[in-house]
Design goal:
Chain lengths: 282, 232, 363
Amino acid sequence: MTWRRIAIAVALAGLLALAATACGGGKEIILATTTSTQDTGLLDELLPRFKEESGYKVKVIAVGSGEALAMADRGDADAVLAHAPSSEQELVDKGSVVNRQLVMHNDFVIVGPANDPAGIKGMESATEALTTIADKKAPFISRGDDSGTNKLELKLWDKAGLKPEGQSWYEQSGQGMGATLQIASQRGAYTISDRGTYLAQSSNLELEVLVEGDPALLNVYHVMQVNPERFDGVNGDGGKAFVEFMVSADTQKIVGDFGVDKFGRPLFIADAGKAESELGLE
Amino acid sequence: MDLIWDGIREAFRILGTGDYSIWEITLRSLFISGSAVAISLVIGIAVGSLLAFNEFPGRNLAFTLVNTGMGLPPVVVGLLVAIMLWRSGPLGQLDLIYTPLAMIIAQTIIAAPIVTGFTAAALRSLSPRLRSQLYALGASRLQMLWLVLWEAKLPLLAAVMAGFGGAVSEIGASIMVGGNLAGETRVLTTAVVLEVSRGEFAPAIALSIVLLALIFAVNLILTTVQQQEQRS
Amino acid sequence: MSQAKLSLHDVWVKRRGSDILQVPHLDVFPGEVLAVIGPNGAGKTTLLTVLGLLERPFQGEVLFESESVRGRELSLRRRMAVVFQEALLLRRSVLENVAMGLELRGVPRRQRRERALRWMERFGIAHLARRGPRNLSGGEAQRASLARAFALEPEVLLLDEPFNGLDQPTREALLEELAGVLAETGVTTVFVTHDRDEAARLGHRVAVLLGGRLRQVGPVADVFAAPVNEEVAAFVGVETMVPARAVGDAGGLARLEVAGHVIEAVVSGPLTPDVLVCLRPEDVVLAPPDGVMTSSARNRLTGVVTRIVQAGAQARVTVDCGFPLVAVVTRQSLEELGLGVGDRVVASFKASAVHLIPRPAGG
């Protein structure tokens, strides 16, 4: 009956392996962040350093801003890196997150096909550009996923006094920035993207930057801890270590240089320590 | 079209060089889905033989439940398991969320009803007198179970293959409970989605090729065993 | 009276609320062949499964060698063997199937193959050793099933209508072989059948099961010749069945001594010394003792009428010629003959009407 023995041995080995997988053990934190942040590749650069310095392994859960903040609100993460300032503020007011610090910013750009059917190239006002797109009924792809990008986009439509949902030229992809850019590229449509993701993917896209520079298009990143006093199971020390790491001088230098070798210009501008008003935010 | 051709060419290059941790991801897919199916097989045999061989009140209800389980949308299973395993959930203390074990649990819940249903059907299709005859020949309970399973080996194999196919192609639950973490919980399906969302088609195609090859290989095994049986 | 090998006491089997089997008492003696007969649905198979310890009765005790079987079912099952109606072979070679029981008992490989092969030779299927189970004929499959059971050299052998689905010639052949093996091995056997002739051919004693109850148990001749009530009689078929000794044969005619008379019967082959003489009532002609002989029947016996049962246009008349001889006549003939109980009468029958059933030794 050697078959039986072999089967038992395999089963035991399997059980041991299973047990091993469960023991992540040790020092770990869960970081809730957004897909666009992860897609830039910045975290791939920073997290190994964080591990070396602090000993914490970071589990990066990259989802839409809405979900990332919802996770924080449930205590299902230890730290958050997001770019939806007004929603983050709500959590601060609620007491779900603490120690919120400015990290960096980049900007959003309005991109579209090179031939620019709506004729928005070079406009200085984002709302003006969007109004023109609506008038001309030029195809526009929204992320429609409650992400930071999406929230900013909706705020701009709101500012322009427009309601694009349901109109034939306005579509929602429900997906991350990369996928949404792809869709826009394939369809010859307009969309709003953070500069970082756009630059990272531009070689695969047939889209160009048409409108940039409007302060309304600023994309501001904050890091924060999920409040360990409020939720059981939250790693307060780990969260704190991460926040401190993100605003430390060394990290900020890396942030400021990130992307230069690949795209010729940095993807982010490091802001730790600055006052919010300096950035021209409302 | 260029996109696809370029993608395919680049995909083969990736397969050759092992970029994008493609082999590491493949092994993990095999390990996680394989474990889920193995556990499902144990559950399937235990519950399936109970259902097939014993009369008890509520037996029909039990069968209905198993059949319903077979049709459960995987993403719904994923959501339920995630809610349970989140720190904010009832089993949060176990710290299982975003681990391979959590994915095994979710995939087992998805695969187990499939394997159980097929196993029960396979065992039921055997002659009822067969068990009497085996007991009469002096088989103990365990011997009888082993012999009967061996008799039903073909449909059982099909059950395992169906369960494995379901588990390895699954994506919604795997992302929700696994988090698609590089080096830890990223599997073939979740990696494909990630690469596509990044606009990286070549690795997505490479991963898809591996996934297809895997499923093909698994079915090849089943067909080969079936042929051998027919011949003998 | 030797100690019973298997006994049932107050056994009651119920299934889904209805009574399937009720046996106050039944013994199976070592070395005997007990034939259990009854119509379909009478509970014969259930009786067999209870005896084989494959089913636990709702109430009652099963004793093996006078001790309760409780708690020892598996080990006792391994001392018995069962042959069912269908051969139920597994997906393995025929040899492996025949060796299956031995494999389950942990007999080492070489030994079990040898034994299996030996018994396959005994049943004439050694050439099928390597074949798969699928293309066997019904007869071949049942031979395998028999070989499988005998290979275990069991202390008790239970057979449930093993020849039921087979065609007549195959049935005959297998019956013959089985009778031979049973005689050789002397294994305690319980043989279930609905065929009376099979029961008579193989059994020492017969048990009649009707409606889940044992109606009569006793030596074969007794039960068939003297059914205890109408019900049993109806099933068994009232017929003259009487043991006889063969005292010679010449030219296709055998001479048999029965209860002081010598009768002649047409035979086609060699005879066992002990036989059962069977006569259908329709083949017996009655005539007044001093009357003119009109028939050319070779066998003429004088006797006294002991019983007359009228049923519609016919009457069954039992005549005591030293053994009970049953004839059936039309009502009209009965009146013409003016027969009544106690009258002397001559019963005659042709040598060709005599049906002989060879009996096991010591039967």
